[in-house]
Predict the 3D structure of the following.
Amino acid sequence: MKLSALQQSYTNRRSNSFRAAGGLDSSVDGSGKSPAAIFWLVLHGLCCLISLVLGFRFSRLVFFLFFSTASNGGTSGLYPSTPFLGTTADIAGSLSFQANPSPNLELPPNRTAGGISSSRVVVGRHGIRIRPWPHPNPDEVMKAHRIIERVQREQKLQFGIKNPRTVIVVTPTYVRTFQTLHLTGLMHSLMNVPYDLIWIVIEAGGTTNETASLLAKSGLRTIHIGFDRRMPNSWEDRHRLEAQMRLRALRIVREEKLDGILMFGDDSNMHSMELFDEIQKVKWIGAVSVGILAHSGNTDELSSVAHKKAEEENLPPPVQGPACNSSEKLVGWHIFNSLPYVGNGATYIDDRATVLPRKLEWSGFVLNSRLLWKAAEDRPEWVKDLDKLDGVREEIESPLSLLKDPSMVEPLGSCGRKVLLWWLRVEARTDSKFPARWIIDPPLEVTVPAKRTPWPDAPPELPSNVKEISIQEHTEKRHAKSRASRSKHSSRSKRKHESRTADPQVSSKVSEE
Amino acid sequence: MGVWIWVLVFGFVWGIGAHGLDRHPHTERISGSAGDVLEDDPVGRLKVFVYELPSKYNKKILQKDPRCLNHMFAAEIFMHRFLLSSPVRTLNPEEADWFYTPIYTTCDLTPNGLPLPFKSPRMMRSAIQLISSNWPYWNRTEGADHFFVVPHDFGACFHYQEEKAIERGILPLLQRATLVQTFGQRNHVCLNEGSITIPPYAPPQKMQAHLIPQETPRSIFVYFRGLFYDVNNDPEGGYYARGARAAVWENFKDNPLFDISTEHPTTYYEDMQRAIFCLCPLGWAPWSPRLVEAVIFGCIPVIIADDIVLPFADAIPWEEIGVFVAEEDVPNLDTILTSIPPEVILRKQRLLANPSMKQAMLFPQPAQSGDAFHQILNGLARKLPHNKNVYLKPGENALNWTAGPVGDLKPW
């Protein structure tokens, strides 16, 4: 406020002086005094008056401004030692902003004590330097990402696993509605694994183009095998068939003499990346903890009873895996407590009841592939030979059947305390249809609610909503002051017709913004 | 036969050499301008005599406000405790090379915890009067073989505002003494020629408690947490940090590579360990505990403070460890940082990973070898032997006991 008054008085006086000078000029020509001298006298008087008002020598400020613009606002050396007070510094700052709107402004330092040369860096008010376009530069961002990647690679070299081994993943699958869902999830997890990977996919019902097209997108090294039997409908039989499919994969590992760490990646599980780092530590056979997400199909009376019971007892989420004593040695196994669900478990894939896991899931075990080789030199004696299991038609429930001595299993994931993968079985009804490879060809013309899938019978009123949205879009575009071409679908006519009903909605929408 | 023996010897020696290299694959030796001195042992190279001051200068002050043990100026208290039980301490002042005065000038705290320096000049004056009248060693050299720990914002200028601090200058009585301070800026009134710059105090246990596994990948490019504008003390802007912090915010607030904000997250230490560069810009004073934190957590410090003198500058080659950016180059900070070649960045990280580097920045209790206490003693030892003209001839007076503002002359 004070500033603007000063400014006004300054300009007033300026204009006055010019008028006065002009007047004097005309009157003085005849008298003989030089107009220049009078002009300078008047200017001097003017400066004196201004200095009186401001409280310091005004001319010094003018000289300073000239010098600062000339020297490009750099941090030059000593200035004459008159101290500047805080308030005058403000005025000087703002005045100079009027005169010279460059963002670089520096004020001379205060009086220095002692005979020491003052710092090159000046104290006082500095401008805030902002470059002309203060936004990220995409080239710089790319360079930074390359630097980050190089640093992380170095970190992995120094602190990560030395000599990582190939990971061999065994996945039994079959074609069904949710296959794409589950297999894509697994595939992306495997694509993110930083180690070499071999993916053995066993497909029930023979190899199909469906699965093959999915696998081709991964870019991983895959071995796609067909299994002659079709996947049955009951969960019991399904588990049994999967076990046999896995054994088939183990035989392939033996025949091809694949070297690495074998893990069982079921296509419906969720794996964390830490799992793949952890399994590198296995020597012969290891076990990790699997979190069980036993999911109830819907809120039936039966399953809700089981759930309420579980909640009442405050059970921790069920985890399957190794159990250790305090000296980190394997002493037993945690298995899924299926007692609350007795009699309520799902038997068929279509059931809406809870799907239960087996006692010990295959996916919680990790093997060194050399265990399966025919004649590995350092294979320990407590492992059964795979050949012997070929002829016998016994139930192979878990990889523990491969061992003569199950206590030799190494617990991984800080002795089972870390849950590194989760088990969940969700499947659509066996009669649900899905388009081959999820490509809709030819494009859909008419959609009719399917009677056999659980959609509500009356679909919501779609058409009027769509029209309102388009009208709002058009009006919003107008409000954004874009003189873009009007849309060609005669929106004007629509607006006229629907404007009465749509207007209150439109205005409310606009007012929200 | 002789040939085989030579081959064996050669192989043995080469094996040892290679093994020695393998032991530290991810660190590098640090040698500053004074040589390879970070691991020097000061014991036996100097002797320090600790004056017995009345407890009103140290213990009583600490009893009044125990917060002094945790704030960033706590080095003065811990230095006293270290010297009391250190092997370099001597009880015979005649054989001492250096004399230490245990006075806690930075312990008069406001309710918020900030130290008020207004009484410190009088306190220091009164302490010096005491030691000069009770012992002859001050008058012998007028303080040239004495050292004081003054960790406040601008050292012995005893003011938190830079303009006022420059006006006051270093306390006249301390002109000849060696000052151990955190403040350092070249050609500044408050930095004497022979001063030793130390890092601010950072609590070692608290930092150790927040370490995360080394293999956690560093995914943040630039990290900073702190103020950009100090609206309480600098409402119009442009004074705080000489506008440099504000420039950082205005230029990079929408840049995804820069994780900068004014929040106070509980995961501050963990985040620093996940960052490649940590900004250490100046505030009201050029030094900050961020430098110490960056070094401990392996994050390359980006120092934005013109003409700053960093701790133990003769023992630690800061140019090779950190990145220095002039305040006027702040708008181009992203270009500067991304144009550093990756090999240079990896080398800086290796230097930071050196355990002796981290030790030199800490004040652990109890003291360990190579820590900041020992670096201070090393610095003092490097200044020995004292120049002959330090000892004044009888009758000669170098200090003016009445210089300075009138308020300082009042007794404390």
Observations:
- DSSP finds 14 helices and twelve strands in chain A.
